[in-house]
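Internal tracking record. Fields below are filled automatically when a chain is submitted to the structure queue. Please do not edit lines marked as system-generated. If the sequence contains nonstandard residues, flag them in the REMARKS field before resubmitting.
Queue: standard
Priority: normal
Entity type: single polypeptide chain
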Amino acid sequence: MESKSLFKDNLKTLRLERNIGQVELAKQVGVSKGIISLWENGLREPNMTSLIALATFFEVSIDFLVGLED
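SYSTEM-GENERATED OUTPUT FOLLOWS
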């Protein structure tokens, strides 16, 4: 699943570019720090509500997050 690995890479890159930790991102999108870690390690994928929250927080499209557009 290439989009899965792109999502985890895009998420981590965006988080590091914003210079925020997993705990802060988790608070911003309403999930636990453990969930952020699972997403970034490619062990879980977010549901639609979480994708929308992430896209809104980072001001990017869901397509960008999941690797469908650059």
